[in-house]
Design goal:
This protein is mainly alpha-helical. Helix content is 59%, strand content 0%.
Length: 83
């Protein structure tokens, strides 16, 4: 698992860092949301307790931006999987 310091030291990409916090619950949460949805839509979506546990273990803090990055990464994974 990459930690916050690894991410800041550029040892992993943005996508790699946030993908490690995506769980099946996030995949379900983003199922019917387009990647280009307005930010207010992403802001009101939820993260699972498991995702929060994972990113706290990596030294990350809970912020709206972290939540949105995780959810958008889930959507990108979903899009890539459907190709």
């Amino acid at each position: 698992m990459y930690n916050r310091k690894d991410y800041l030291d550029k040892k992993c990409s943005h996508g790699e860092y946030y993908a490690q916090f995506v769980t099946p619950a996030e995949m379900e949460e983003v199922k019917n949301v387009p990647l280009d949805a307005k930010l207010t839509i992403w802001d009101f979506m939820r993260l699972s307790a498991e995702s929060v546990k994972l990113f706290k273990e990596a030294g990350e803090c809970y912020t709206l931006s972290v939540k949105v990055c995780i959810l958008k990464q889930a959507k990108k994974i979903q899009i890539e999987g459907s190709k």
